[in-house]
Amino acid sequence: MNRVVIDWLNEASFGDERRAMLYPNFSYEDWFARGRALPDSIETLIELLEQEDLMRPSGDGMRAAYALGWIGDKRKRAVDALLRSLGSKDVTLRVEAASALGRQGDATVLPILEKLLTNKNEDVNVRANACIAIGRLRVPSSEALLRQTLHDSDPFIVRCAQEALRLHGGG
Fold this sequence. Notes:
This protein has helices at 3-9, 17-22, 28-37, 41-51, 60-71, 76-85, 91-104, 110-118, 124-137, 143-149, 155-168.
């Protein structure tokens, strides 16, 4: 696996104070640009997700999913790795995988995102990111579900549905 990409991935703090101290002037915009420029960055991120132990998550999968969502492309292997990640015990990985799927722009994932959104037993942050991802996909048939979600019992999900409709173009 590409060690330069792994080192780049570990620069982002994601709330880790120790990492934030190592990179005090960290900029995500610069970080994304450097990641896009690294040879084999997408392939390395996909490999990390494919190798992640979903039952005993490392914590690195969340970073890989986040980065893949922002610097990735629409290749099927990336989408498949993100879909696989939705089965993780790590809620932060599921949150970032749902978000990244919306950024990938592959509308074939819509039924899975819809299922996440409507699953009241799912973590609220996973549901929220699935909702926003649905809006980003801009599939006309999803507008009805987003409008229905405006009546969810959780005010956070309602706010996400409003944003999703804005992204979708229907609100």
